[in-house]
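Thread: Newbie trying to understand structure tokens

Hi all, I'm a second-year student working on a class project, and my supervisor (Dr. K.) asked me to get a predicted structure for one chain before our next meeting. I've only ever worked with sequences, so writing a 3D structure as a token string is new to me. If someone could post the tokens and maybe explain what I'm looking at, I'd be very grateful. Here's the chain:
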Amino acid sequence: MNFNQKSLTLIALIAIITISSCSQDEPKATAIQDKPIEVKLASAGIKSANGKIEVTGQIEGIQSANISTRVIGTITSMRVKAGDQVKVGQVLFTINATDIKAKSAQTGAMIAQADAAMQSAKKDFERYTALYKQQSATAKELEQITLQYKSAQANLEVMKQMKNEVNANLSYTTITAPFTGIVSQKLAETGSIASPGMPILTLEQTGNLQVSALVPENMIASIAVGNEVEMNINAADKKLNGKIIQINSSSQFTGGQYVVKISLPTTEMKKLFSGMYVNIAIPIKESTISSAENNAVTVPENSIVYKDQLTGLYTATAENTALLRWVRLGKKQAGQVEVLSGLSAGEQFIVSAGGKLYNGAPIKLVK
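---
Reply by user tm_fold:
Sure, no problem. This is what the structure looks like when written as tokens:
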């Protein structure tokens, strides 16, 4: 073997060793997946006081709406801010309409072209109709010209409907208030990209308020529409009476609790504001009171989640995911804390977890 052959062999061996070394050092890609968090569940009891159950609610507008746009584009002008009073029909914000205006011009030109074709087809139709009456054109020729005329008419109508669609889209670039109210949230600014279905503003009707509260599932059968309730609004230093006006019949998306709507006295609405918290005492049936008396709902203090000034605990959904439920707490004693509202007797909650929980986190129940 000569010198050149030895050199080539040595180079090839070095290359093989280098490639092998690199492939060993290179980390193997692994798919990262959310593994279910192992959790343990516990059950709770219930508390009643003076023949009433206590829950926490919040004042809200009877009519509220998330304002969005039906077209995609840049917000060119935001006319309002959070807290502004607006009237029905008032412009809230505008979307860039350059593309839609260009389409409007195109459809205008297409309408003119289709109209010219239709006028030409109409003249041919009239001429051949006259010739056919004079027996100078055959029935087949008249039939063919008639079909051309009808086709031209249909094409013109299509172009006009396209123009109507463009005009409708153009109207969606100027967003107005659907009712008189107050802007409670502003979720985008001038220059932001708006897309269909994305909330830009939240509008709530003014002067027409109600209270929304959550009632535990084992208490919902004990209340009814029309029941009188007592309300204490600490922020406004007011004690009011109201009536249950609506009970939601499903708790699918509220963690086993039912949404209850309560009326407010009309004379007091001007002094109240949306978002205020309300402590509510709801009368319950005597049979429920006697069975629940002196049984306070208590949970381990270490199962409570603290966020800002709110307290809550995690429950398990039917889909085996974690759901954070806000609760109101009472006395603490011997590592236990009393739950005044938000959790009812017999309901299960997550007492411990093998990882950090969050809303929607996949969980696995263990004993």
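A couple of things are worth pointing out once you decode it. Residues 185 and 329 are 29 Å apart (CA to CA). The domain at 52-62+208-283 is CATH 2.40.30.170 (Elongation Factor Tu (Ef-tu); domain 3). Feel free to ask follow-ups in this thread.
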